Amino acid sequence: MAEEKKSLNFIEQIIEEDLQKEYKKDQLKFRFPPEPNGYLHIGHASSICLNFGLGERYNAPVNLRFDDTNPAKEEQEYVDAIKADIEWLGFKWARECYASDYFQQLYDWAVEMIKNGDAYVDSQTSEEIAEQKGTPTQPGKESPYRNRSVEENLELFEKMKNGDTPEKGDVLRAKIDMAASNMLMRDPVMYRCLHKSHHRTGTEWKIYPMYDWAHGESDFIEQVSHSFCTLEFLPHRELYNWFISKVSKPGDFEPKQREFARRNLSHTVVSKRKLLQLVEKGIVDSWDDPRMPTISGLRRRGYTPDAIRKFADSIGVGKRENLIDVSHLEFCAREDLNKIAPRVMGVLDPVKLVITNYPEGEEEWLEAENNPEDESAGSRQVPFSRELYIEREDFKESANRKFFRLTLGKEVRLKNAYIIKGEDVVKDSEGNITEIHCTYDPKSKSGSGTEESLRKVKGTLHWVSVKHAIKAEIRLYDRLFTEETPDGVKDKDYLEFVNPDSLKVVTGYLEPSLTDAQVQDKVQFQRIGYFCVDKDSTTAKPVFNRTVSLRDSWAKISN
């Protein structure tokens, strides 16, 4: 038992302590509360995995609640995308809820607060209100409208609700303490006038609740036991509790807010505002561009749900913010794809290889293992012929002893095929190699068991038969930013660090087993990296995205 307790993270410890004190297990309920004003990113994935993971651990319900209190920025598109992301990650919510479900209840409670002297309508401008807030070391000043009569406040609040008050006009504020040490307790705004159509309620409402008012009350309505927020909401906890105390009755079950630290990811930004800028400025094509840190972008790039869940689990939750290197996320992708991705051959920078002693017009089909990590994956047939493509970098006319690929006068093995020997090259008028001529040993066929086939050579090359090759668009994605913390460099705009090489498009030649590859199919191009079929792919023009290279190419740069 001691070992099991030791492995608990601090949030699980909070829950365990609550269960030993006042909570019963059947009272446990969690929630994931996104605002539908953008697509979810990798930071949200950690929060999703935390809340839904707790639900699985304690066999407790987890609500998906959309905090849709700002119609100016929220859209149904984002709601649909968020639901798709959570389902793709493999989680199921108990109830689909919306803060907008509670607009009438929130309004009714606000009216009661006015009647009880706990809220008032302020007719000052937002600038005047901000100026009167004071500073962390100086108390604020009370609004000249703070002591309006209950009747006047009710009348003005009704006008706000009916749309008779202009936007940026009156606001409803909680009446707490303008001298409070926590500045959030200095009469925070509860409602503002906003004459925008809401994606669910249309034009029914002309006032909308602020986050601090709607969030805790929504938790209370849903009887959420633990409301987990990121660390910046720690100062909000006092206000969260105060608001709930104003609507609860003795004996009511009240939720607890607790905070954990963000896990930031290197070489990217996760601010929704900045991600939207990347889309609007055309730096990326869309929210699901494979360079984006959005869950939909990672999915399109070829990441698996298991890889993202493993990443979230491995970085855990803590009380201090820290920066996680993106290489760790890439490692999780490689580790998962290594188990499930079939090995295939593709050549991305081709040069023709002619086997001069192989019979012209002849071809044969060779057996190739699909995945050495998975015995059940079986094998496939790969066509072999006189003319092949190999990678241009796999040949040098002359090379030192450390070059274990093809060169003149030396032997290498062609994967699943024969041992060949470099004999000659053909060049164009500018001296570029257009063909490599070689000879092969007919008795060295892989797996044949002959003495020649067992001969050891130092290099093995992948290849594709020219006659049978599929021509495909290959999108080589890399990190979107060259700087580790692009939005954390003083006096620099994060856009200055956009990686100009974050996407290179090349034409590749692939083995014909990929003819029927479907969108999101994942493969390993041997000796190159992991790839998946993009949604832009067609039968006439296949498109493959690079998920990750086989090794971390940035490790050398940073060392």
From TrEMBL:
Q: Which domain of life is it from?
A: Bacteria
- Does the entry feature the keyword Transit peptide, yes or no? no
A Pfam entry, by short name? tRNA-synt_1c_C
Q: What is this protein called?
A: Glutamine--tRNA ligase
Please state every residue range assigned to the domain named Glutamyl/glutaminyl-tRNA synthetase class Ib anti-codon binding.
341-441
* Source organism per UniProt: Christiangramia sabulilitoris
Picking any one GO molecular function of the record gives: glutamine-tRNA ligase activity
Binding, ATP: E35, P36, N37, T230, V270, S271, K272
Under InterPro entries, the record lists: aa-tRNA-synth_I_CS (IPR001412), Gln-tRNA-synth (IPR004514), Gln/Glu-tRNA_Ligase (IPR050132), Gln_tRNA_ligase_bac (IPR022861), Glu/Gln-tRNA-synth (IPR000924), Glu/Gln-tRNA-synth_Ib_cat-dom (IPR020058), Glu/Gln-tRNA-synth_Ib_codon-bd (IPR020059), Rbsml_bL25/Gln-tRNA_synth_N (IPR020056)
List the ranges annotated as motif 'HIGH' region: 34-44
| Key words, A-Z | Aminoacyl-tRNA synthetase, ATP-binding, Cytoplasm, Ligase, Nucleotide-binding, Protein biosynthesis
